[in-house]
Amino acid sequence: MADSLPSFTLTDQHRRVHSFPCGRPVLLCFVKEDCPTCGMTMPLIEAAWQAFNGEVEVAAIGQDAAGNALLVGRHALTVPMLDDSALKVSFAYNVEIVPTMVLADASGAELRRFEGFDKSDWQSLLSQAAHLAGGRAPRIDWHAYPAARPGCGSKSVEPGVAERLAAEASGLSLRARQIELGAEEDPFEFMFERGLTDGLPVIPPTPERVMRMLTGTRRDPQEVIAAVPPNLAPLTIEKVAANAVMAGCRPEYLPVVIAVLEAVCTDEFNIHGVMATTAGATPTIVVNGPIRHRLAMNMRVGVLGSGNRANATIGRAVKLALRNVGGARPGEIERTALGGPGKYTACYPEWEERSPWEPLHVERGFRREDSVVTVFALEPGPRLIVDQLSRTAHALAGSLGMALESCWHPKLHGYGEVLLVVSPEHADTIARDGWTKAQVRNRIQEASARPIRELLPDADAGEGMALKHFGLAEPAAAGQLEQRIPKFRKPENINIIVAGGEAGKFSSAFGGWFSGPMGSMSVSRKIEEVTKPQ
Amino acid sequence: MTQMTRIVDPTDERVPLSRALAPRPQRLSGVVALLDIVKPRGDVLLDRIEQRLAERLPGVTLKRYRKPTFAKPAPDELRRRIAAESDFVIEALAD
């Protein structure tokens, strides 16, 4: 082994400063006070220090200041006890177990390392160090020692600590305001009381967890990615990370959450209107590309909920960020009359591999190997479409068209974007006839078209469309009223993805909101790839 | 919990601002803006308000404005224009 070890500077029990490398061979001994094996090892470290007389520098590196003082007193140590209570050196040296002994040459290259206690390791370590010192190994009563004894976990790998150290080592720092909770305060209850949750429990965003979340992106925590309506508050990566922690995300989900928030905070998507509308739309996310597999998203049985962490928490993180940073709180600016389950979370991957068609992101101009989010303003929950009997693409697409006519209201045509989730069995029925997505869309338009006279409000159903929508004036000629109007403004408004369990002749649809340039338009955005796909 | 917990504030950290209402004038005068947010039948409501105000307050100037869409906030330019040109605003929601 000739790895060059990290350099460091620490102070000892006499406030003397020690730097490594120092131009002489060094024996570094990582210890902590509450580890019995470390305690057993301390006399050996002291003996080495006295025997080598500075020809080989010997130093104990203790992991907490109070414990270091105890060790010095208990073992009457004269060997320098360096204070690594910040654990930065332990982390830099990849110390997982204490005691860890590291012997390095004068240049700082590692010669030998072992963990825990092993008599033969110690004996050969001391003779190698003695050789370097040009002297003798200390005399030790080896009969007083067991052959071997395992060590304890290093403080630098304790849960939470390891994540913080990793984040600090990568140069990350937090700037957001931090709130201290009292010792008796329950952080979960605190989050509820402060109005920071969607009504379900959230993970408290401790600095350690937020730091760990930030390891999921290469972007600067202080980068402002959007001004979030309605408050137009600046949204930093750090704030996204805090809300992603609360939602239950893993760090690798963070780039998806960021991409969605960038997509919705655009004039095209109009998140202000989507959150404020009394009608009840919600940002509904479709994930495409290799990242679906890396995040282990569920695109099969129960794809539209529930049970998968990535599906559930990515959409929730987006909603929590809109609520906490943007100020879109239900009953305040979020004013939906009814809402729906999709108001908690709405994030679904497409099962591209099971689809007979191009995936959604490829249709939208991305490469198949790109990972992409597409966000739609849709009803906050899917509607089930049952068709267990159709055996042709024509009949099945006709059924889908008839079912889609009920979106908003059967009499409201010229409708905007809708998301149709076709199950594998339905996709197979259509694929057997070799139909393209364009053919499916045209058949939906054909099956859902109605004559104008059926779309006018009347005594049986007061909702409907006025003649002026069709460029007609009262009284319209009977022939004019026979003109058939398709449900959707354009066939392309019918967005089709394949997902779901392989058994079940059902599909699902999410109705749209007020779509188009005056309302909301779907937005696709490529996801930053932190790790290359496998 | 035996240990103190520290959390990162997930909000925009803005202290909510409470704004005082403008003083209520005793009478209408000058220019009254009638803003149609273009919800269905908002124009019907504003037509009627405009007619009644013109009858009762002949000295007041009434000016009509329209948002491009009810689904988005009023554009800055429209807000500036209304603020510069009028003393009062009546906004019609309707439906």
Features:
heterodimer; A: 534 residues; alpha+beta; four-stranded mixed β-sheet; B: 95 residues; alpha/beta; three-stranded parallel β-sheet; 2 helices; elongated
Task: Give a written overview of the molecule.
Chain A is an alpha+beta fold and 534 residues long. In chain A, helix 7 (207-214) crosses helix 8, helix 9 (254-264) packs across helix 12 and helix 14 packs across helix 15. The two termini of chain A are 31 Å apart. The model of chain A has no long low-confidence stretch (mean pLDDT 94). With 95 residues, chain B is an alpha/beta fold. Chain B has helices spanning 42-56, 76-85, and strands at residues 6-8, 31-36, 61-66, 88-92. The longest helix of chain B has 15 residues, at 42-56. Classes of the chains: A alpha+beta (534), B alpha/beta (95). Chain A binds chain B through residues 174, 176-187, 190-191, 196, 204-207, 210, 228-231, 233-234, 238-239, 242-243, 246, 270, 272-273, 277, 320-321, 324-327, 514, 518-520, and chain B through 1-14, 68-69, 71-73. Strand 12 of chain A pairs antiparallel with strand 1 (6-8) of chain B.
Care to give the gist of this entry?
Chain A has a domain at 8-158: 3-Layer(aba) Sandwich (Glutaredoxin).
Assign the CATH architecture of the domain at 8-158 in chain A: 3-Layer(aba) Sandwich
CATH topology description of the domain at 8-158 in chain A: Glutaredoxin
Number of helices of chain B: 2
Number of helices of chain A: 17
Strand order of the largest sheet of chain A: 5-4-3-7-8
The main sheet of chain B comes to: 3 strands, parallel
- Residue runs with pLDDT of under 50 for 5 or more positions of chain B: none
Mean of all residue-level pLDDT scores of chain A: 94
Helix share of residues of chain A?
A: 25-40%
Strand proportion of chain A, as a percent range, falls in: 15-25%
Strand order of the largest sheet of chain B: 3-2-4
Query: Number of DSSP strands of chain A?
Result: 24
Estimate the helix proportion of chain B, in percent. Answer: 25-40%
